[in-house]
């Protein structure tokens, strides 16, 4: 199983790349975490945010494989504890499908992305900065994997 983090935006600060890559290196070979960055359209003064969100959504959907299990990261999604995430990860692994985690741009995910999603996951009711979400996701995925392996990284 491959996990794809499909995120709108690029040109992250060095600390984001360093933090994200630290956890990517720790992921097992049979469950690699791959980042797919979707370029953010230019946001000019009179740009229509709805049209930009649709454009971002089309690019996200083009990055998906036909058999991907899609998880949209949405504030309104279901909240999981880390042990619950590890259970989700085990179900994803057992399904044999690749997993695509979708992170929208500043205006969120398009309706088409939400419609394509098999699940919606909320990291927090707070609005989180997109750079931080990348690091947080990578760490939580690694932590969930360690729970499945009985590794002492996660402590209750």
What are the SSEs and their pairings?
Elements: E1 3-8, H1 14-26, E2 33-38, H2 49-62, E3 69-79, H3 82-95, E4 99-103, H4 111-116, E5 119-122, H5 130-149
Parallel strand pairs: 1-2, 1-4, 3-4, 3-5
Helix pairs in contact: 1-5, 3-5
Catalytic activity: pseudouridine(1915) in 23S rRNA + S-adenosyl-L-methionine = N(3)-methylpseudouridine(1915) in 23S rRNA + S-adenosyl-L-homocysteine + H(+)
Binding site for S-adenosyl-L-methionine: 73, 104, 123-128
EC number: 2.1.1.177
Question: What is the gist of this entry?
Answer:
InterPro entries: Alpha/beta_knot_MTases, RlmH-like, tRNA_m1G_MTases_N. The protein is α/β, with parallel strands linked by helices and 156 residues long. Helices cover 43% and strands 21% of the residues.
Keywords:
single chain, 156 residues, alpha/beta, Alpha/beta knot, 5 helices, 21% strand, globular
Task: Give an overview in words.
The protein has 156 residues and is α/β, with parallel strands linked by helices. The protein is built from 5 helices and 5 strands. It has helices at residues 14-26, 49-62, 82-95, 111-116, 130-149; strands at residues 3-8, 33-38, 69-79, 99-103, 119-122. Helix 1 (14-26) links the parallel strand 1 (3-8) and strand 2. Helix 1 (14-26) packs parallel to helix 5 (130-149) and helix 3 packs across helix 5. It is globular. The model has no long low-confidence stretch (mean pLDDT 92).
């Amino acid at each position: 199983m491959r996990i794809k983090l499909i995120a709108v935006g690029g040109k992250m600060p060095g600390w984001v790349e360093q933090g994200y890559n630290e956890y990517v290196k720790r992921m097992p070979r049979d469950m690699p975490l791959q980042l797919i960055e979707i370029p953010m359209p230019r946001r000019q003064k009179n740009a229509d945010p709805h049209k930009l969100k649709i454009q971002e959504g089309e690019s996200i959907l083009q990055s998906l494989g036909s058999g991907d299990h899609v998880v949209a990261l949405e504030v309104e999604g279901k909240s999981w504890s880390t042990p619950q995430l590890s259970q989700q990860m085990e179900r994803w692994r057992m399904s044999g499908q690749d997993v695509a985690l979708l992170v929208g741009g500043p205006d969120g995910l398009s309706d088409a992305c939400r419609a394509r999603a098999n699940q919606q996951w909320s990291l927090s009711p707070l609005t989180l900065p997109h750079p931080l979400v990348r690091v947080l996701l990578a760490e939580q995925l690694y932590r969930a994997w360690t729970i499945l392996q009985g590794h002492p990284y996660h402590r209750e």
